[in-house]
Amino acid sequence: MKSKEVVLANLEEMKKFYLEATEKIYLLLDVRGTFTDPEVMDKLKHYGKQYFKGKSEKRAVLGVSGIKKIMLKGYALVTNTDVQPFDDEEKAKDYLAS
To answer: Which terminus of the chain faces fewer neighbouring Cβ atoms within 10 Å, N or C?
Structure first.
């Protein structure tokens, strides 16, 4: 499992990528085996509203089940973004390509 520190560092990298992007982003995010807690989700929600919103054309997330599915729905609601969960990587890629 990716540690909290790794997840937070990845969020910082994602923020930097979004800030430097000049075109719309098609995001495929794999959260299988990823640590999450309220602090991580709070930072993700803040970044979602502050930096990510309006930059992604489509968003697909792999490995969302159980509590992560509830957290993803909360993220989508708070940031007012459409985020699609997928169990299958090929289906996620097909969604992004359509």
So the answer is: C
| Pairwise CA distance, residues 10 & 67, whole Å | 20
Strand-pairing partners, residue 86, are: 62
> How far is it, in rounded angstroms, from Cα 67 to Cα 40?
14
Q: How far apart are CA 82 and CA 39, in angstroms?
A: 22
Q: Give the 3-state secondary structure of the chain.
A: CECHHHHHHHHHHHHHHHHHCCCCEEEEEECCCECCCHHHHHHHHHHHHHHHCCCEEEEEEECCCCHHHHHHHHHHHHHCCCCEEECCHHHHHHHHHC
Question: How far apart are alpha carbons 37 and 22 in whole angstroms?
Answer: 31
Interval 44-87: pLDDT, tens? 999 999 999 889 999 999 998 888 888 888 888 888 888 999 99
